[in-house]
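Board notes, transcribed. Complex of a protein with guanosine-5'-diphosphate.
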Amino acid sequence: INIQNIRNFSIIAHIDHGKSTLADRLIEKTGSLDKREMKEQVLDSLEVERRHGITVKAQSVRMEYAFNGCLYELNMIDTPGHADFSYEVSKSLSACEGVLLVVDATQGVEAQTVANLYLALENDLEIIPVINKIDLPTADVEKTKSEIENLGLDVSNVILISAKNDIGTQEVLEAIIKYIPSPKVNDEGNLKALIIDSWYDNYKGVVCLIRVFEGEINLNDRIMIFSNKKEYNIENLSVLTPKPKDIEKLHAGEVGILISNIKNIEDVLVGDTVTLADNPAKQALKGFKKIKPFVYAGIYPTDTEKYDDLKEGLEKLKLNDSSLEYEPEKSDALGFGFRCGFLGMLHMNITKERLEEEFGLDIVVTTPSVLYKVEKTDDSILEISNPKDLPEPQFIKAIFEPYVSIDCLTPAEYIGSVLNLLQEKRGYQKNLSYLSSNRCLITYAAPLSEIIINFYDTLKSITKGYASFNYEFEGYKKSDLVKMIIMINNEPIDSFSQIIHKDKAYYYARDVLAKLKEFVPRQLFEIKLQAKVSGKIIAKEEIKALRKDVLAKCYGGDITRKRKLLEKQKEGKKKLKQLGKVAISKEAFMKLLEPA
Ligand code: GDP
Ligand code: MG
């Protein structure tokens, strides 16, 4: 096909604004699948993604569409759907010449609308605004239009659609052809192809989605990965229509799927460049960086026998998820498990759910922590995520913590509460602007550690669910941080120690001790609870001794009831965790680990 007739585009939207539904309509309209094959949301492949309504792995579909007597090749490249993955979103977008920016007419512009728009602008893409869900009675097209305009976009060619009811979708296809430029390419040059995505397939091994920018790539070519110089033979080239279709070559400007004898997903990371081994390009495509986890937590099997199963689960997930990191760890209360690194909270939650659902594991996730940088008195820099690795205060010169930039969209009536919350989270304001008379965009910088714990839920509850937010890593800043140690009967309990801002230590200590007091059952002996910072006790509590007899309330007679009680008690014992000399139930322990 003539390069002039190729269009590469993505659909970007805030979650639930209708990206997948519109993608389905476009696939249906271009006749890529018949009705029988058309199952809802063909692009969302994994079960977890389907339920979350988010797409983690980018995919791409090649469609054909005839317009004004010409046949066009439309490559729709799906973007991963959340802030945790903004680097991957950006790479998907850099494979495109334009985007459809979908905004729900009943919701208006939201945080991810803004974040995705910024990424599209950074990549110099043509942006076609699309207002969706106009079928709904609560749709406010004019207001939505003016919010989009206040983001600095031209709304003269905005398209009004109902993806669900197939209204306006024809116009969307025509706009893609009319407004999105065809790829500008150099097909004479040495091969340069961008790895947009890579994943592990149980049957085919490592699979790469690539966009060719220069030169061309042919079946059986010997290729080289730019960053690590590793070489492979191309065993298969294909496109999804969305049914897989084998092809012989990909020209500059095209998008397709490559399979070679690549064993390790880490060798073909998103953003790297593929070139020819015999005739390599001199320079890589711009902007390759390996993304590092920002959020860390311990994952432990609730049943210690399941350690090997957990290990196997993590190994399998890692095949498909190069940003997941883990290493063995031992905890006083939880036994053997793993310290895991995630890109963000969504990534952490998805990983947890996949371990539970795909591998049938019952797991405990400890309170997440960020990656701190510690400058020691000998001038060396230590990176730590686990409070127990923090050196003693006399060896610390300074501690640095990651800050993020937060964009928060909220109805104007909640501005006060949102600013209070951000202030409480140790943030400082960078910007505040109105997108419409009652919709406000607040930009703040704040420590990531404050955002990963309880921020999302609190924001949602103080704005009755109306605010949305998005964050991006900004840099490390020096902070007044201390280690707080929780002790039960003078024994420190690692799982509860925390690196925390000096000004917050006291309140945090009170919270944790109050929770402990509530959830640790009375024992035959008195229990002393203490919180210590830099060698000083800053808070304490005690739990009085008690003799507990489960049968005391059963007067003689009912033997089955007695047996039931005893069995229940036995069941409970199995799940008991040992905290120092104090045993508590799994449920209580989980409650204790929930962030304060
Ligand atoms: P995504 O998260 O952006 O991929 O959003 P989805 O395509 O999954 O859509 C989210 C929800 O909105 C689903 O329940 C869709 O059925 C619904 N939806 C999508 N488009 C429309 C529309 O045009 N009208 C109405 N009424 N509902 C829609
Ligand atoms: Mg979707």
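Residues 314 and 556 are 51 Å apart (CA to CA). Confidence is low (pLDDT under 50) at residues 44-56.
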